[in-house]
Amino acid sequence: MASEFTFISRYFKDLTGQQGVALGIGDDAALINMTSGQQLVAATDTLVAGVHFPSSASAEQIATRALCVNLSDIAAMGAKPKWFTVALTIPPETASPKWLEGFSCGLASVAKAFDLALVGGDTTAGPLTISITLLAEVPIDGALLRSGAKAGDCIYVTGTLGDGAAALAEITHAGDKNKVSERLLSRFYRPQPQVEIGIKLRALASACIDISDGLLADLGHICHASNVCAEINSQQLPIDPEVKANHTQQSLAWALSGGDDYQLCFTLPQNLSQQVDQWIKSGQLNATMVGHIVAANHAKQAILVDGKPANTMTRGYDHFSD
Amino acid sequence: MASEFTFISRYFKDLTGQQGVALGIGDDAALINMTSGQQLVAATDTLVAGVHFPSSASAEQIATRALCVNLSDIAAMGAKPKWFTVALTIPPETASPKWLEGFSCGLASVAKAFDLALVGGDTTAGPLTISITLLAEVPIDGALLRSGAKAGDCIYVTGTLGDGAAALAEITHAGDKNKVSERLLSRFYRPQPQVEIGIKLRALASACIDISDGLLADLGHICHASNVCAEINSQQLPIDPEVKANHTQQSLAWALSGGDDYQLCFTLPQNLSQQVDQWIKSGQLNATMVGHIVAANHAKQAILVDGKPANTMTRGYDHFSD
Question: Do B46 and B131 contact (CB within 8 A), yes or no?
């Protein structure tokens, strides 16, 4: 079925660097030369029309969102993304040259920004679904995991929270795209995977995860994997002023459990927080301390927000429970 | 979204070997230790309900077919498959524990047979689609490519041809599964990726491809990549006697362009064919010589069958041209 991939390769080929690619698109599989001393990092994510993006989204928007969402998983590992494959399932009536060109342009622009090489995939007829596998490298034993948080660690998040949910609400309710804030539209269709920050945090963070399901759910994963609990101060949550002003009622709930933010949540031993706070002060790092890790309390709720138990199971985006 | 993958990991975990897996399912991405001196091989393939398998297929059948089809691409590279990710998109009403258990059992049985480790993926709600990315290893510069065939080389195929198309015809027309030959049902839902043969051919074959679109189409890819032409003797094509008897009219056409066989087509310099013929005679290799590579003739048709031009563009399974 690899031959069908000419659709994409026609528009895409030679648009990105080919570092380490011994054999790219065009044979039965790709051949890649790994850098010695590195571990291979692999992550797969799927986006479905009407579930992960509105059916009205443009081909370019779908492509940039799909690739950025996948990159966010790699960022959370502190890894350097290098190669990716794309499985595109598309209704024949949608697969016009214009659509495919837009899709390829979207992929190419993100691939260029992160120096990624497309190494394979396929295109098949069917309901619109995009599945991307990202391959990355990280120094052996250097990856950031969910499982290293310890009582006393500070909890940080990058960027602002709640943008993903605010964007989705505006896109869904506005109907007319002109009414959606440009900033939020860009946050939704081109989230900003924190790859550089992930790499910067390698030697420092005790645990790290990307915020795709909402801070409570994802910090809950860190707590579960590290066997600890967490306390969050809602006053400290970084929320964009525009989101706060336009969505006063919902902005805090969205910041806690809205999902789709693709920022990083990481924990840091207190003796290392000075270094990070200095980076933040000097503008080298856009992050905010939002709470602390505490010892496991064997209660059901792993996370307290302003001293009250938060239900970490309240997810903004669990597809099967919606 | 990784948390949703608990669906699969619940049924699947610990069922397969974990060779080289430093961190499996449960974090944002998997960590894999590559063997030194090896290149990474990556291939992605997608199966869509109603396109690549009948909607009536069982969860286990879908899983075995999806994984075997992907393994076939790895076999064609002469590589050793080791790790895979699964992106499962499934309608919520289909995603019963029983269905997921069947799907996981199907994956597990193929994974066990080929000593593969499942390292990640995700499950999302949507129309039934399975996208698998297989990761494999091959000694540096040892992979079998499509591009090495030279005039004078012998052309071989493994196993029998036309089984895939015969199976599809019987499944589609029979309605009642009992009327489909057990052998063909198994060929369709659990094709036999020729991984061992691919590895065995590493030092011998000048070019190799797996037959997914039909011999003419796939041998056409070898001709195109190697800038050569080919001559096939239809009398020599290996067709199962039962298929020949039950589908007298179609069996030759199916062997040439039916697709879905997932056998290997490989080329071999004449001075090496003796070694391979000996393997065939002694039962170590199930393969048949079906023709020769000839110099490029700059005509439109790259392949002659019994001396007559064959249209290599006649595909059994080009989804967009059907």
Answer: yes
Q: Which two tokens stand for residue B101?
A: 């258990």
Nearest to A262 by CA among A199, A188, A316, A319: A188
pLDDT band at A2; cut points 50, 70, 90: very low
Residue type, B275: Q
| Vertex A77: Cα angle to A75 and A81 (nearest 5) | 50
Quote the CA–CA distance of B146 and B149 in Å, as a whole number: 7
How much is the pLDDT for A299?
64
* Contact criterion met (CB < 8 Å) for B31 and A43: no
pLDDT category at A233 given cuts 50, 70, 90 is very high
Q: Is ipTM over 0.90?
A: no
**Can you tell me the distance from the alpha carbon of B123 to that of A210, in angstroms, rounded to the nearest whole number?**
18
pTM here?
A: 0.89
Cβ of B43 and A32 within 8 Å?
A: no
At A219, list the tokens. 């910090």
What is the set of domains in chain B, with CATH numbers?
2-139 (3.30.1330.10), 154-310 (3.90.650.10)
CA distance A96 to A112: 24
Rounded Cα distance, A36 and B303, in Å: 43
**Between A320 and A114, where is the model more confident?**
A114
Q: Do B164 and B259 meet the contact criterion of CB atoms below 8 Å apart?
A: yes
Residue A293: its pLDDT value, please?
97
A33, A51, A122: residue with CB nearest B46: A122
